[in-house]
Each structure stands twice: as C-alpha cells, then as structure tokens.
Design goal:
The chain has 3 domains: 99 residues, 3-Layer(aba) Sandwich (Rossmann fold), CATH 3.40.50; 71 residues, 2-Layer Sandwich (Dna Ligase, domain 1), CATH 3.30.1490; 183 residues, 2-Layer Sandwich (D-amino Acid Aminotransferase, Chain A, domain 1). It contains 15 helices and 15 strands.
Length: 395
C-alpha cells in the first residue's frame, strides 16, 4: 500500500487532495505546526498527524522533521500543496532525504516562477505577453513612474500571495505614493520576505483566467482553464466562485511557458485578457497546487493522483474535463466576498458568460469535520468588531 506524507497545513486544496487519495486506499499522513482545533477537526482520510516546526519561520527545522519522519515511516511520496511548504522544500532540496520521492523543479527554476520579477524577465525573453511592469526602482523614481504609467495601477509584493500582503490599487499619482509606502511598510515588517520593494504594474480589467496543470520536465500531462468569477478580496485574490472553461489559446500559452521553463510539478498560471490588443497577458505563476483544486477534481482532472502516478512510474493518461462546471467556495471565500460586495457597492447580479451545467459547494457530507471547522472560522471572523470597518473600503 502506498504511503504519502503531506507536509502542509490543512487548507481547502489539501483536504481535497487527501480525500481523493484516501478514497483510493492510499495512506495519507500530514505534518505541520497545527493548532489544537485543527487536530480535533481532522479529515477522516488522514491516518496520522505530526507536529513539526513551521516551514515559514524555521525551514531548516521543518526539513529536519520531514527527514526524521521519512526515516521512521518510509514514505513512498512527499506531497506538498501550499506556497510555504513548496518554498521551504525547494530552498533546501540539497538536505532533503533522497529516500522519499517528490515532484519538484530545481531550486533555480522554482524561484524563477516564484519571484514575480524573475517571471517577467523570463516572459520578456521568451515572447510571453505581460502587463507593463516597473521594478528595480528607488522611491525617488516614483514621480517619473507616476507620469509614465497609465492608471489605474496595481502595487503588489514581488513574491508570495497577494491575499496575504494585500494588493493595492492607485488611480492617480497621489494614491500611488500613499499605497506604495503603505505596502512597503507591511513588507518590511514581514520577516519571511526577502524582497520588500513592491512591484508597480498596469491594471488590466476583467476576470482572472487560470491555467492549472501538472508537468514533468516541461511536458504538460494535463491542463485545465478556469475563470475566477468572484474573488476574495473582491479587488483581487483567491477564487470564491469559479467555473471551468476550455480556452485553447490560453492552454497553448501556458504550455509554452512550462516547456520553456522545463517545469516539473503542479502550477497555476494567472492570465488576464487585454481587450486593447486582444491578448492574454501573464500576471503571475503560482508554483504549487491552487486553492480551487477541488473544482479541477470535480470537473474530471484528479491532479494529486497524477502526481502520484508520475512518482510511482505509472502512466498518466490525457484526460478530458467538463467545461461549465461551477464551484462555490462558501467558507470562507464566497461568504466574505459577498459581505465585501454588500458593504462597498451593494448587491449587483452578475451574469455568467458561459452556460453552467453543474454547481458544487465546499461541503463533503462523508467527511464533514474540516468543512464545519472552516464554517466556524468564517463566522468568528465576520463577527469580530473590526471586520465591517476593515471591509468597507477594499477597492
């Protein structure tokens, strides 16, 4: 029987992966710096949970703990899901036990994708369209940038998730200055980040299109496209309500990116369609499993199992999936996005540009504890005294 160690937090995509693997009688153990409530609300498909040091604040201790667990339990596969886990593992591949198989690009390739600045340099060299981006500047250059750029603009961290640091938007030079210093202060006070100078980028309106895939040495095994119809935060963030699409030109661009990178592992590439020149432009690469993984699974692409097959030298078949599958991530994304919309612009009905053939929600009646716990956390967040004040001005 195959044994998998998942050295990650119990986010939605992690639980989704554990469920589809556990239902195939694969033993799934997890390891992270868990809190008490996460332990008592664990998925029924988790065999054992181990408490180990933080991947963010103690990456070497995290790697040592994984090596120790591997020595003790002889896992067949090491399967990370989230950004912090992938970051720590990619950074310390040289000291990671070779006895456990992991689907991961080399350190240089991984951080080319993880670091937005490196990504944009790569795109320029390989002919991949991107928004106009300003980087490697000093704060004294802000005035010149403010004169050159077309508003609105996005100010964001060079690496990591915009959900964690918060995207900033500016409609004129005064806002650009204010948002730049606001975000830079947050980045400077984050001990995990090595880059504290924000990136300034032209804003392209419209939905975010994702190309989600698993690849081996640049060969894409399967790929799915989707639209983030609602996001949280609503100004730009993770998918709250997504639906699958089948956009061939988007898949072609994503395949080119991954082939040129010689990418190995799962990845989600974000694009926006620019109506001015009618091109899909690459926004960023997320070198990990995506938060909306369960939508991919429900549409017919079991990406965690594909990783398992690759590592166990099994054949990965090309699989078709259903377009027009919608997924509502109620807790917390859709709930919090709805509240933000009500507080900022009132309820406005949005129509889908595509026929929806089926809708799923993030509750599994056969494994309810993790979903009940997320619902509890969502309710506690909404009921906090500062929540409404913080969400009345998110644009």
């Amino acid at each position: 029987m195959i044994k998998i160690l998942i050295p990650d937090y119990l986010g939605q995509q992690v639980i989704s992966g554990i469920r589809v693997l556990g239902r195939k009688d694969i033993i799934c153990d997890t390891a992270w710096n868990y809190c008490f409530h996460e332990k008592i609300s664990k998925s029924r498909y988790i065999h054992k949970m181990y408490q180990i040091p933080s991947a963010e604040t103690d990456p070497l201790g995290y790697i040592d703990a994984i090596n120790s667990l591997q020595t003790t339990n002889s896992y067949d596969i090491l399967l990370p899901f989230g950004s912090s886990a992938y970051n720590a593992l990619a950074s310390n591949q040289d000291i990671l036990s070779g006895d456990c198989k992991i689907l991961l690009s080399s350190k240089d390739i991984f951080f080319l994708a993880f670091d937005k600045l490196n990504t944009f340099d790569f795109c320029q060299k390989t002919g991949i369209a991107t928004p106009m981006t300003f980087h490697d500047y000093h704060e004294n250059d802000l005035y010149a940038i403010g004169k050159e750029v077309k508003y609105p603009v996005v100010i964001k961290a060079r690496s990591g998730s915009g959900v964690r640091t918060g995207l900033r938007f500016a409609n004129d030079y005064q806002e650009l200055k204010e948002k730049y210093f606001e975000l830079r202060t947050i980045l400077e006070n984050n001990p995990v980040l090595s880059h504290t100078e924000p990136i300034i980028q032209e804003f392209i309106p419209g939905y975010i299109h994702d190309a989600c895939s698993v690849a081996l040495d640049g060969e894409v095994k399967n790929i799915l496209t989707q639209i983030r119809w609602w996001m949280y935060p609503i100004s730009g963030g993770v998918g709250a309500i997504n639906y699958t699409t089948n956009i061939s030109v988007l898949k072609k661009i994503a395949r080119k990116v991954l082939r040129n990178l010689k990418w190995t592992g799962p990845t989600q590439i974000e694009f926006k369609f620019d109506p001015r020149d009618k091109k899909y432009k690459l926004i960023e690469i997320n070198p990990k499993f995506w938060g909306t993984l369960d939508l991919s699974i429900k549409a017919g692409l079991n990406f965690p199992e594909m990783v398992k097959k690759i590592l166990m030298n099994e054949k990965v078949e090309k699989v078709s999936y259903k377009s027009g599958i919608r997924y509502v991530f109620i807790f917390p994304q859709a709930s919090l996005a709805f509240i933000q919309l009500m507080l900022t612009e009132g309820f406005q009905k949005r129509s889908f540009s595509k026929e929806i053939i089926k809708t799923y929600v993030d509750f599994d009646i056969h494994d309810p504890l993790p979903d009940i716990y997320r619902a509890f956390l969502t309710a506690r967040k909404v009921m906090s005294p500062s929540y409404i004040r913080q969400n009345t001005n998110v644009r």
